[in-house]
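>> received
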Amino acid sequence: MRRQIEHLTAHPSAMLLGAQLLQVLAWPFLEGSVVGRSFLGVIGMLAVGSAVLAVRRTPNVSRVVFFLGAPTIVFTLLEAVFSDTEPLVLVSGLLHAPFYFYVSYAMLRYLFHDDVITTDEYYATGAAFTVVAWGFAYLFAAVQVVWPDSFSNAGGFDHTWFELLYLSFSTLTSVGLSDIVAVGAQARSILMVEMMVGVFYIAMVVARMVGLTMMRRR
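>> returned
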């Protein structure tokens, strides 16, 4: 058990990636009840805590991450219990979005700080990608509160956070599979920014990791 704990703490990026993916897989089964959403909130807090651990190795940004992470953890659980309260959703989105964006920035600094590829950096490559998708999903949720009818599909205009996360992933990966479209000007502008982020992530981060891996094998 001690060895397993040491292995997890040695790879906090893996903890973050695992918590994010677990939340994605569990959401369809648990979002219909308060207990289920609370459990998802706990998983979300685990993801936030893992994100903080993942960037602790970068001293210059750790204080900012802790400052943003503490209220984010609180609102993660509050939003899980009171998911239909628009002011709470707005504040939660405005807290989560900068937190996740800053975590992604810190993880990118961690990835680019040297030319040595470690196991945790492989996990960090995937975790940073999911963190960016999470950040834009919370930004979409805030936009939906401030500018109603910003997103639309056959079911109407009001969308859950999980639907917005699906839109975020489909936009960031450039697959374009989401049935939700941005119809408001503000929503479209943010979506265009996310498209650019997704393209640059593949071009810069993934290409660099592949190149360094090939160099190490040679």
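>> Helices lie at 2-10, 12-30, 34-55, 59-81, 86-112, 119-146, 161-172, 185-217.
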